[in-house]
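About this split. The held-out portion is used to measure sequence recovery: a designer receives only the structure tokens and must propose an amino acid at every position. Recovery is the fraction of positions where the proposal matches the reference. Here is one held-out target exactly as it appears in the evaluation file.
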């Protein structure tokens, strides 16, 4: 797959499916009914034809056409995105012929610009560049804003042209007029596309931020600096589903010589050294930094956080982003200095740091380890179990059955062992499909509930999964439940935990969750005209039925527990330890 299209599609998949599928993801579940008891949500056609995944793709397509002719109202045949992602599952697995057949079906059924773009990609991967070019040109003619098709046409016609490396892109300078025009395009597109753009910020304040960013543009502004400014405009609307890649592109393009050469950790209101790297003769872990290049750390953090995307007014998400990318965020905030001087608590004079000799960051500090995203274990000497779910990223067009099977098997074992205490760890879970969250909730509730109070998105044609009454699983769990959360928990994790809180399903432990019941998801993928910077803007609204909770705050724990600096250095999982202590 072409790298640009791959990254764009991964970005879209996350935004499209988090907080609920963006377009008519209507999957049938026998426990989802109308108030009168009748099933009204049409089944997923992809889930149906996946039952024949062991058969040749021709048989699956024949089944699709047969069901569409004989049972047009029983299945959702309008969800082009779901069928497209089914095709991409094959393309990403190098099953080119199957992907090609599915994409051809989409062309025949929908005839959209996206359909021809996907078919072109399949032709390109098969090595048929001429036919791929013709399909890309048709896609672009149907949708002049399809910048992926535009890029592919250019690459096919001019293979000798090489894309800029991240370092080259960072140093590229556009005219001040081009930068400012792009900032205007960025701000206008956000206002036009986002359904809740002024929920957490006034229009005047948003406009003021845009104008201030434009005033910082000079004839010497590098693309890397411009990109950092764009993040400020995007972050100002406080939507976790509108962004440019979470500041990872800015980290990737920043030259090594400009990176902050030590690893730090922001805890509470203090900045500590975690790893001095090649400055260990001057620094040691746990040293507290008071200022960098004369700028107090509180001032520095406040500036950086204005560029970090998070939901509502949640700070814990920003904490995690900073602690992961501090080696690049500090340089951007300080204006990309050539040298760094630290003021340490208790030190007599500032310390000038040596430049980094090797890569610094991103710094991943996962205490919880669950390689497969779904883990289950019994805890020794206790009638207790630990269920770890680091992703709800399971969909009807791909691997939802894997999640369903795992949950079903886990709760069978819980029942067989007579488990009285269950810890559900959803830390590091950035979201996924509502189907996954609903399936887990059905084991935890003891009465019917509704998942969504609102689910609005472009092209909606009827109720979607989660808008109807959902009934408990017959083999539901009725013991004690503890939930572990953190600031990374986003999107569907917010919906899930909001219902846990609202329905009083257990005790919540950790820090403020990075999300809640309110979610602007879906996405329009966009690109700035002059600098070609890619970004995405949320285009829909999904709200759980926990509507009495505040929209500006993440789900709050019953017990606030977080690491201090000694816990960080010693890699102590204080949240899990606290939960285990409650079971004694």
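Reference sequence for scoring:
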């Amino acid at each position: 797959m072409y790298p640009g299209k791959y990254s764009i599609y991964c970005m879209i998949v996350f935004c499209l499916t988090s907080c609920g599928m963006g377009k008519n993801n209507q999957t049938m579940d026998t426990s989802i009914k109308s108030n009168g008891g009748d099933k009204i949500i049409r089944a997923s056609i992809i889930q149906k034809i996946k039952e024949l995944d062991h058969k040749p793709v021709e048989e699956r397509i024949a089944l699709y056409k047969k069901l569409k002719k004989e049972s047009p109202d029983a299945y959702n045949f309008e969800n082009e995105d779901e069928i497209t992602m089914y095709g991409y599952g094959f393309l990403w697995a190098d099953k080119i012929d199957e992907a090609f057949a599915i994409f051809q079906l989409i062309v025949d059924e929908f005839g959209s610009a996206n359909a021809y773009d996907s078919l072109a990609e399949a032709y390109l991967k098969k090595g048929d560049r001429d036919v791929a070019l013709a399909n890309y040109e048709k896609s672009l003619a149907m949708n002049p804003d399809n910048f992926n098709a535009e890029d592919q046409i250019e690459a096919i016609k001019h293979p000798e042209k090489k894309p800029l490396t991240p370092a080259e892109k960072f140093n590229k300078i556009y005219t001040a007029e081009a930068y400012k025009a792009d900032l205007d395009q960025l701000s206008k597109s956000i206002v036009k596309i986002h359904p809740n753009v002024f929920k957490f910020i006034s229009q005047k304040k948003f406009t003021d931020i845009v104008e201030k960013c434009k005033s910082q543009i000079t004839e010497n502004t590098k693309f890397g600096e411009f990109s950092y400014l764009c993040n400020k405009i995007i972050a100002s609307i406080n939507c976790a589903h509108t962004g440019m890649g979470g500041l990872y592109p800015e980290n990737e393009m920043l030259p090594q010589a400009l990176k902050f050469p030590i690893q730090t950790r922001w805890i509470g209101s203090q900045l500590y050294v975690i790893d001095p790297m090649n400055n260990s003769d001057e620094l040691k872990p746990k040293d507290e930094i008071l200022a960098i290049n004369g700028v107090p750390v509180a001032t520095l953090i406040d500036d950086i956080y204005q560029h970090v995307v998070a939901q509502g007014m949640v700070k814990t998400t920003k904490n995690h982003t900073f602690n992961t990318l501090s080696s690049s965020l500090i340089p951007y905030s300080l204006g990309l200095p050539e040298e760094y001087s630290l003021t340490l608590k208790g030190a007599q004079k500032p310390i000038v740091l040596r430049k980094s000799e090797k890569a610094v960051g991103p710094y991943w500090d996962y205490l919880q380890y669950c390689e497969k995203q779904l883990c289950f274990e019994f805890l020794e000497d206790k009638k207790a179990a630990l269920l770890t779910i680091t992703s709800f990223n399971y969909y009807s067009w791909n691997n939802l059955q894997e999640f369903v099977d795992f949950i079903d098997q886990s709760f069978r074992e819980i029942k067989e062992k007579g488990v009285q205490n269950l810890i559900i760890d959803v830390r590091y879970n950035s979201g996924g499909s509502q189907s996954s969250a609903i399936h887990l909730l059905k084991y935890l509730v003891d009465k019917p509930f509704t998942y969504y109070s609102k689910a609005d998105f472009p092209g909606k044609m009827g109720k979607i999964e989660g808008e109807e009454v959902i009934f408990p699983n017959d083999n539901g769990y009725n013991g004690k439940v503890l939930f572990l959360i953190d600031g990374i928990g986003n999107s569907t994790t917010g919906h899930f935990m909001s219902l846990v809180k609202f329905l009083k399903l257990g005790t919540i432990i950790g820090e403020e969750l990075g999300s809640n019941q309110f979610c602007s998801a879906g996405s329009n993928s966009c690109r700035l005209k002059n600098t070609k910077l890619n970004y995405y803007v949320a285009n829909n609204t999904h709200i759980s039925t926990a509507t009495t909770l505040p929209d500006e705050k993440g789900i709050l724990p019953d017990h606030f527990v977080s690491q201090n600096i000694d816990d960080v250095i010693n890699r102590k999982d204080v949240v899990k330890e606290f939960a285990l202590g409650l079971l004694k």
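Annotator remark: Residues 1-17, 22-39 have pLDDT under 50 and may be disordered.
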